[in-house]
Structures are given as structure tokens and as C-alpha cells.
Amino acid sequence: MGTPYLWQMVVLGAVQGLTEFLPVSSSAHLVFAEFLLGLPRPGLALEAVLHLGTVGAVLVLYGRDLARLLQVWRRSPLDLTPGQPGRVVWLLLCTTAITGLVGLAFAEPLGALFASIRWTAIQLVLTGLLLWWAPRSGNRTLPHMTWADAGWVGLAQAVSIVPGISRSGITIVTALWRGIGREEAARYSFLSAVPAILGAAAFSLARDWQAAVFLGYSPAELLVGFTSALGFGMVAILGLVRILQHGRLRTFSWYCWIVGLGVLAYAWRCGV
Questions:
Q1: Distance from C-alpha of 73 to C-alpha of 177, rounded to nearest angstrom
Q2: Whole-number CA gyration radius for the chain
Q3: What is the distance between the alpha carbons of residues 166 and 197, in angstroms, rounded to a whole number?
Q4: Among 55-59, 133-137, 156-160, which stretch is predicted with the lowest mean pLDDT?
Q5: Paired strand residues for 140
Q6: How far apart are alpha carbons 19 and 73 in whole angstroms?
Q7: Contact 25/127 with Cβ under 8 angstroms?
Q8: Which of 73, 129, 179, 240 would disulfide-bridge 89, Cβ 3.0–4.6 Å?
Q9: Are residues 35 and 260 in contact, defined by beta-carbon separation less than 8 angstroms?
Q10: Three-state DSSP class for 140?
């Protein structure tokens, strides 16, 4: 396959930006695109640039919030009193550490599941069930989260390595089950996505650096992909927050079920 046209880069960025934050699994859509459309997954360099775009979306919308948390944390880094805003930084570090440890331990066997279109479709259906049974809301804010809360979210984020399990979906639902408020659950999910996405991209690049370097994408193409992922990522974040405010997370269940069962039926019919 030759180098993508600029409009293809816009499409790839849109898919990455929307599915990274909407609870519909970006990994499932990559697998489905490869199977149904015959499109190979983006190379490592392009994947890294698209992931940077989605991280940029979080920083544009939540960068000031993160900076404020870091500022409070720097003034009293050892103050772990519940309700202290700077405490959230330690909670995010806890979540990131657990995600990283579990992810590194199981990345290879779970990554092999990308080869199974049926397994991916089934996991997307399970994501729909997870969203359907999510609690409507909790009442605790991030500074009042416990270490157990942070640990469970970190474990949930690691589970999203499995193709078809939505990272944003499973982390938000886990936070809701732990009694965190709707908007606060989304906020924590987005903030914890920054180190998780950057870490995953860095891990992939380090594992196959030569393949990432010699892919031949032009600076203009990479810039278009980055900008598209950033813009559509912002749209996805704002849209998801609005949906959560109205308690309509179940809306995405229908999408996951229709797409997952449709792909599963098609794969079964084709005998793959």
C-alpha cells in the first residue's frame, strides 16, 4: 500500500480521535477496518503521531486542570489528606503504575488477540454490556478517591489492551462503580489516558524503531493526521462529557452490540 493521500490521513485521524475517547474501542475499529476493508493497520510512526494528537486533545481541554493539580502538589507533595487536590497526582501515578505493570506482563499474549476478528467482535459486545450495566452516578470527587479506586481504574485500563474493550468505557464505568461522580469519572479517565497513551506509543516505537523511522510519511501527511486526531479527539471528549451529564452512557451499548454482532455474523459466514 502506498503512502496515504491527505484525505486518508484526515480519516485515520478522525477514527483515532473519536474512538479513543468514545467508549466504542479504537482497537476494535482498527481490526475491523483491516478485516472488512482490507486496510492494513497504520505503521508505528503514524500510530505514534495519531496518539500524540489524542493526547493533545486532552491537554487542550484539561491542561489547565492538570497544571493546577501539579502546582498544588508541588507546594505540598507529601500531603495525602483526603480532599487535598494535589493528592490526585499521586492517585494518577498509582493508576499509571498498575496499568504499566499489568500491561507489560500481558501485552504480548493479549496483543496476539488482534489476529482474531471473532474475539474482537465478542469483546465489543461485552463492552456494550459493561456500558449498559454502569451505575448512573456516584457522588465522590477525585480528591476523595481512595488508593483502591485508583488501583481498580489502573487494572481496568490495563484490561483495555484486549481488542474490543474500550479504554475510556471500562475506566469510566469502573470509576462509577467505585462511587465517583459522572463528570469526575470522565475527568479521571481522560487525565489517566495521557501517560497510558504516551507509554503505549513509546513502547511500540522502542520495540520496532527501524520500522517506525523508515515508513516514508511526509511531514505534511503526519501533520494532517496529528491535527485531525487532535480536533476529532476534542469533539469526542466534549460529546462524551455532555452525554454523561445526562446519564446516557447506555446509548453506546447499542452501537457496540450492532457493530460487534454484525461483524461476528459476517466473520462466521465467511468462515474466519
A1: 27
A2: 18
A3: 13
A4: 133-137
A5: 180
A6: 32
A7: yes
A8: 73
A9: no
A10: strand
Whole-structure pTM value: 0.88
Mind listing the pLDDT tens digit for each residue in 102-122?
988 876 776 666 568 888 899
User: Do residues 87 and 81 lie in contact, with contact meaning Cβ atoms separated by under 8 Å?
Assistant: yes
3-class SS of residue 249: coil
Tally the residues of the chain: 272
For residue 130, give the C-alpha cell. Answer: 459493561
Report the candidate in 221, 136, 165, 168 with the shortest Cα–Cα distance to residue 28.
Answer: 165
pLDDT in tens, 45-88: 677 788 889 999 999 999 999 999 999 999 888 888 888 888 99
Q: What is the pLDDT of residue 41?
A: 60
In one letter, which amino acid is 240? L
Q: What are phi and psi of 180, to 5 degrees?
A: -85, 145
Three state DSSP letters for 168-202: HHHHHHHHHHCCECHHHHHHHHHHHHHHHHHHHHH
CA–CA separation, 138 and 255 (whole Å): 25
Tens digits of residue pLDDT in 242-263: 999 888 899 999 999 999 999 9
Q: What is the amino acid identity at position 159?
A: V
Alpha-carbon distance of 121 to 109, in angstroms, equals 18
The residue to which cell 459476517 is assigned: 266
> Residue 78's CB: how many other CB atoms inside 10 A?
7
Cross-strand pairs, 180: 140
| 145 touches 91 (CB < 8 A) | yes
Return the C-alpha cell found at 158.
490495563
